[in-house]
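Appendix C: a fully annotated inverse folding record. The material below is reproduced so that readers can follow the format used throughout the book. The structure is listed first as tokens, followed by the designed sequence.
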């Protein structure tokens, strides 16, 4: 089956569309993925601006939510149609859309609800393909965190590797999946990935820059130990997994509050602030991985393009001996890994197979995820395989 996976993360800078051919092995134990490539489409400025203005802690209206749901759906639809045309020769059979997370209702260690916008009807209408969307709510309804859902795909990729392998994604929020000795697993959001770094860069440059390109600002700065200590003392980092978070917690206002808490000691500015926030991300990721005994870490997401961040992460993990590698070594490009992961989850849903890993999300059991929007043709669901695939094999 030829599937397009759509993803836009908490940095909400662009929609990524990755296409793949997916098929089950003869015994059903292995899902084979042949990558066809990825295209990326930045959000139009008016959509990105409206989205930024509506996200917590800002107030919004139902009218704004309705407009965003439509406009984001149309952007996702355009990305899917482009991927079908450029990567699939017009033969895509399914689209899997993560949508744009706008609120993740986490409170007292539990997730009570989650909201992703991007009406799938626009995607189905534009492409003619059936669309699987709304992956997270079913896991939440089953008592899970609704994230990180890519943990199931991580497990399928990492099982059988020696030692204690881990997958790390550094988007706006960073998350890890670790395969424990004996086959158990744990996954959770470690804390801010790029979220606070990006917020600081936007404020420092008056919005001229949205992120620390090539980590140059952080590389030129000096870490402020006082601010780093205040930020690292956040109670979130002491929550037991599974735990998830988002920009509902780690946003520009959060950063301003912690800067103000320095009182008469002053606050770092410019490059020093960016350096401090970059080390915060590296340190909180390392402190999450170290107790789990990770021996190798496969990194993906926008954060891998920041050499200063990756250098700090390697230094923080150095004493543990964990090697940091790119997800390319598993066959999936760092920038496209999450979009490919949702293509896999969409395939599983269409075939009536669970898409969550209960050990990782905390759900009460395996669940088939998402909702299905029919395409132009009559909807005919494929027969459910006799067994659930245990491994994911990526071909060149």
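Designed amino acids, in order:
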């Amino acid at each position: 089956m030829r599937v397009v996976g759509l993803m836009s993360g908490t940095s909400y800078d662009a929609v990524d569309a990755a296409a793949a051919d997916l098929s089950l092995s003869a015994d059903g134990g292995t899902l084979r993925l042949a990558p066809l490539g990825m295209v990326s489409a930045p959000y139009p400025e008016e959509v990105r601006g409206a989205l930024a203005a509506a996200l917590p802690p800002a107030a919004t209206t139902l009218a704004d939510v309705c407009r965003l749901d439509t406009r984001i759906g149309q952007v996702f639809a355009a990305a899917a149609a482009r991927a079908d045309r450029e990567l699939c020769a017009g033969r895509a059979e399914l689209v899997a859309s993560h949508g744009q997370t706008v609120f993740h209702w986490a409170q007292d260690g539990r997730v009570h609800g989650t909201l992703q916008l991007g009406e799938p009807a626009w995607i189905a209408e534009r492409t003619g393909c059936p669309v699987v969307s709304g992956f997270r709510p079913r896991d939440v309804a089953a008592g899970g965190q609704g994230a990180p859902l890519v943990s199931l795909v991580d497990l399928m990729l990492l099982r059988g590797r020696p030692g204690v392998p881990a997958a790390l994604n550094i988007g706006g929020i960073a998350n890890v999946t670790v395969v424990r000795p004996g086959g158990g697993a744990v996954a959770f959001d470690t804390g801010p990935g790029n979220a606070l770094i990006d917020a600081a860069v936007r404020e420092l440059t008056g919005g001229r820059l949205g992120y620390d390109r090539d980590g140059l600002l952080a590389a030129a700065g000096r870490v402020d130990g006082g601010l780093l200590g205040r930020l690292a003392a956040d109670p979130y980092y002491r929550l037991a997994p599974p735990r998830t978070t988002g920009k509902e917690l780690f946003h520009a206002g959060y950063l301003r509050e912690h800067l103000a808490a320095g009182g008469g000691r002053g606050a770092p500015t410019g490059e020093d602030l960016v350096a401090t926030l970059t080390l915060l991300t590296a340190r909180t990721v390392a402190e999450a991985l170290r107790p789990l005994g990770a021996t190798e870490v496969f990194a993906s997401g926008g954060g891998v393009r920041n050499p200063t961040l990756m250098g700090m992460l390697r230094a923080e993990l150095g004493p543990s001996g964990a090697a940091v590698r790119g997800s390319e070594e598993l066959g999936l490009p760092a920038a496209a890994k999450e979009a490919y992961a949702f293509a896999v989850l969409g395939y599983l849903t269409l075939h009536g197979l669970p898409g969550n890993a209960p050990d990782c999300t905390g759900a009460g059991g395996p669940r088939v995820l998402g909702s299905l929007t029919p395409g132009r043709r009559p909807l005919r669901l494929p027969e459910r395989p006799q067994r659930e695939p245990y491994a994911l094999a990526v071909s060149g």
